[in-house]
Here is the input.
Amino acid sequence: MKRKAFTSLERALDILSLFDLDCTSLTARQIANHLNLPLSTTYKYIDVLSKRGFLARKAGSKNFCLGLMLFRLGNVFISGFDLIDVVIPHMKALLKKSGETILLTAVEGQEAICLEKMEPQRLIKLSLDRGRTLPLHAGASSRILLAYQDDAFINTFIKQQGLQKLTKNTITTLGKLRAELKRTREKGYAVSDSEVDAGAKAVSAPIFDYKGQLLAGLTIAGPSERIDNDLLSDFILMVKEKSAQISRDFSHTNE
Here is the structure.
């Protein structure tokens, strides 16, 4: 009896699993054929799933689609999705592979904030600590966040915050900043050298949420003297690959 109950649950889950972005609706016969079930049995499962809100019949059609209960549960899932918990394992892997500091940054108001930081066991380290904020135009870990904001946000930021100079390499002209933001979006990463801290080089890539909206920035950073051009190229590939992987954790449609 217990095995029959579990079999019924498995079949119900099998039915729900047939739906994806490429297959948003199915007829009862299609479901039956996919799962090799009798049509009469398939209708019984559909009836139960429909009454519980997991399936719904499309208006004016014989097709069934996922119901509002899945939408509700999806929202519950997303609301409990802790960004840092998801990203930490990836940051640890990137730290081990790169041997340099790994940063996770996000937009807070009109600033960039460091949400998490992982450091290698090396003598020379960076001054950007967890909880510290920076101007959005200065440094790769900040500029990667600004690059994916809309024009209204960028214009407001520039008007209200200005382009503060932190070092001699900080971008402080509007034309250069806009060109750099465009280049960042085209390439999918940002690079900086001594824009916030003299002698520090960084490369950052964007992390997107399940809606395809910018969620955070992932950064590899270290002393310029340790990161030559060849190593920088390696770091670019590493951070882009890892940020894309994290984005896929939130949505398989984000690449």
